[in-house]
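ARCHIVE CARD
CATEGORY: sequence design from structure
SOURCE FIELD: tokenized fold
FIELD CONTENT:
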């Protein structure tokens, strides 16, 4: 994102959508930068949460929704706890992500995890070595979740289809 973006005209209509989608405190931000200074993800990357909030506040939809930055937040809530203005930053990130996904933007690692949830009911798969370790610890090799309940898994899959989750995250899903 270039600094030229800051010279564009604000778009209050998009800001209103952010507020209505869950980012209701976005207009409280006064750009102090405490969030960016606290962000563990920003220490490792070029991600600057202050800029994301600013762009949402100004309604710069095209700068914020397709941006990879949106997916670099780990939702650790450090910034949320430290913001002196009480800006619910993670709620803003979530609102923006929801809007981004509806427009077809989603970081591939997030999409893959969402697909796993839809297909298996879990964020991570159960590997053979996990089963062996569970057995060694005296546990059932397969935990008593949807992994060992075919009917429950079918229900999870059905919910994913009925609520449109599949369509959002799996290419070609109906
Ligand atoms: S800490 Fe709060 S007020 Fe300061 S820049 Fe971040 S969101 Fe804005
Ligand atoms: S919640 Fe996200 S933006 Fe805030 S400090 Fe954690 S990683 Fe950074």
């Amino acid at each position: 994102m270039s600094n030229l973006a800051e010279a564009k005209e604000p778009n209050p209509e998009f800001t209103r959508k952010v507020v209505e989608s869950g980012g209701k405190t976005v207009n409280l931000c006064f750009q102090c930068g405490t969030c960016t200074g606290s962000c563990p993800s920003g220490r490792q990357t070029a991600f600057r949460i202050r800029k994301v909030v600013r762009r949402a506040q100004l309604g710069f939809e095209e700068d914020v929704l397709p941006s990879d930055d949106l997916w670099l937040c780990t939702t650790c809530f450090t910034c949320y706890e430290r913001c002196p203005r009480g800006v619910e930053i993670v709620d803003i990130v979530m609102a923006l992500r929801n809007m981004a996904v509806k427009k077809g933007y989603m970081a591939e690692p997030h999409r893959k995890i969402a697909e796993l949830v839809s297909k298996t009911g879990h964020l991570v798969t159960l590997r053979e070595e996990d089963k062996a370790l569970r057995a060694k610890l005296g546990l059932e090799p397969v935990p008593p979740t949807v992994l060992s309940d075919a009917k429950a898994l079918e229900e999870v899959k059905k919910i994913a289809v009925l609520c449109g989750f599949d369509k959002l995250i799996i290419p070609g899903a109906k």
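CARD ANNOTATION: The chain has two domains: 3-102, 108-169. The mean pLDDT is 93.
SHELF: design records, drawer C
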